[in-house]
Amino acid sequence: MIREYILLFASWAIDLYFYAMILYILSSWIPPLYNTRFVRFLAEISEPYLGFFRRIIPPIGILDISPIFALFVYKFLAMLLLRGLYTVLYAW
């Protein structure tokens, strides 16, 4: 019973961060939103991860494709993490 709650919480936390990054990326297209407190909060939690990919993958002209790769890698790592957590929890 507790194992299911641990997996559910981990999955929920991973998804919450994923959607926070998506909201931050989409809000960058709307300049008036960028100065709101909510978007600044999203920037504070998303930029450490997204900034890593921005340093590796430079923009192509005005198009920044690094968030696409960042989200892809994040979902892949999240899947590995949840599978590993499932294996550890149910190996008891």
UniProtKB/TrEMBL annotation:
Q: Which GO terms describe its cellular component?
A: membrane
TM helices/strands, residue ranges: 7-30, 56-77
Q: Which UniProt keywords apply?
A: Membrane, Transmembrane, Transmembrane helix
* Family, as annotated: Belongs to the YggT family.
Record-given protein name: YggT family protein
Q: Which organism is it from?
A: Brockia lithotrophica
**What is the taxonomic lineage of the source species?**
Bacteria, Bacillati, Bacillota, Bacilli, Bacillales
